[in-house]
Amino acid sequence: MSNETNTIRIPMPDDWHLHLRDGDVLPVTVNHAASRCRRAIVMPNLKPPIRTVEEAASYRSRIREVCKFEHFQPLMTLYLTDNTSPADIQAAKDSDFVFAVKLYPAGATTNSEDGLTSVKKAESTLARMEELDFPLLVHAESTSPDIDVFDREKAFIDGDLSWICNRFKKLRIVFEHVSSKDGVDFVESQGKRMGATVTPHHLLLTRNDLLVGGLKPHHYCLPVVKTEEDRTALLNACLKHDNVFAGTDSAPHPRSRKESHSCAAGIYTAPFFPELYAMAFERFFSNSGRDLKDLETFLRDFLCLRGERFYGLPLNDKQGIDTGIWLELQKVKTKNPESYPFGADELVPLFAGKDLDYKAEIKMADI
User: Fold this and answer.
1) CA–CA separation, 235 vs 241, rounded Å?
2) Which residues pair with 363 in a beta bridge?
3) Distance between CA atoms of residues 63 and 72, nearest Å
4) Listed residue (70, 75, 74, 73) closest to 364, CA to CA
5) 249 among known catalytic residues
6) Backbone phi and psi for residue 289, each to the nearest 5 degrees, phi listed first
7) What is the pTM of this model?
């Protein structure tokens, strides 16, 4: 920590689950993300989805073209469909810019229409991923219409995810945006072969924040935020396990899509996600008699080191403060913007117009 008692200093964080979209809104989302992180796992659920290495290369080029920050590295993923082949996996492994494959159950969330209709249709592809030690990222929700929305994570665990884990015992898996105690318990049961991302909004919100006093559309995401027991289980998992790391699932939608009868699922946090994680964990550290230096040590690990260890990438610690770029979080009340320009519409972030407890800023040394 820096000498100022109210300052946390860490290497530039990573975001291991990020949505950027495409087209005329891409400059907004890319530069918001790059203002707070060095690397990001970029989700492939565009229209049409990113299914091949060639499509990933083209999307990566578009991202890099609009990015104003030299330090930002988009880490690409492929969208797993019924037709993804073992050859597609080999091509991804042979590339130096595709790092994982994303499993969306068909119809589970935004732009998931092309997702898997049955995990067994991907058996040969998953086998190749296991053989090549190529990570599978899982949106773990059942799409069966007769399952309660708050129980869809558990239903997917009990069915498809258990089948995948039992059939492919060495396959490296990330349980994306884990949102429930059941999810945490399952991650713990799988040992180090399974990582998990946790979003800031699942650490800060419960279903009361979504529903009490009327539906709050900008608190709606999939998987939905759940109970206080679930939120506490997520917090404890982050504090306890080094295979649980930061993934924002920051998901931009125009105001018109959020504030409509068919409210789009997604919460936007990219421009201030380190501030949110600091807020989420500060309560624990202050209640247990620990100070900002302890919080700084934890955030350095959670935001900057754990994910890269799981993915086997160069350590952020060696690319951070010592090489002249880092992030400082000042403990000071800062009002969040009401909205951002977003094409012909606008983009409303989480806690729009509210005070955040921290303000982050990129710092660079004179070299």
Assistant:
1) 10
2) 326
3) 10
4) 70
5) yes
6) 75, 20
7) 0.95
Enumerate residues 6+ apart whose C-beta is below 8 A from 254.
342, 343, 345, 346, 347
Place of tokens 């689950």: 17
AA letter at 330: Q
In 3D space, the residue among 60, 5, 40 whose CA is nearest the CA of residue 249 turns out to be 40
- What is the residue whose two structure tokens read 């930002």? 72
Q: Please give the pLDDT value at position 1.
A: 41
Run means of pLDDT, 10 residues per run, the chain, 367 residues: 73 97 98 98 97 98 97 97 97 98 90 89 98 98 95 97 98 98 98 97 98 97 98 97 98 98 96 98 82 93 96 72 81 97 97 98 77
Residues 6+ apart with CB under 8 A from 97: 56, 57, 60, 75, 76
Task: Determine the Cα–Cα distance for residues 271 and 282; give it in Å rounded to an integer.
Answer: 19
What is the model's pLDDT at position 354? 98
Active-site residue, selected from the candidate residues 82, 160, 249, 291: 249
Tell me if 138 sits within 8 A of 193, measured CB to CB: no
Our CA dihedral for 237, 228, 197, 276, rounded to 10 degrees, sits at -110
The answer to whether 301 touches 242, Cβ cutoff 8 Å, is: yes
| Spatial separation of the C-alpha atoms in residues 126 and 235, rounded to whole Å | 31
Q: Of 245, 271, 289, 258, which is closest to residue 356 (Cα–Cα)? A: 271
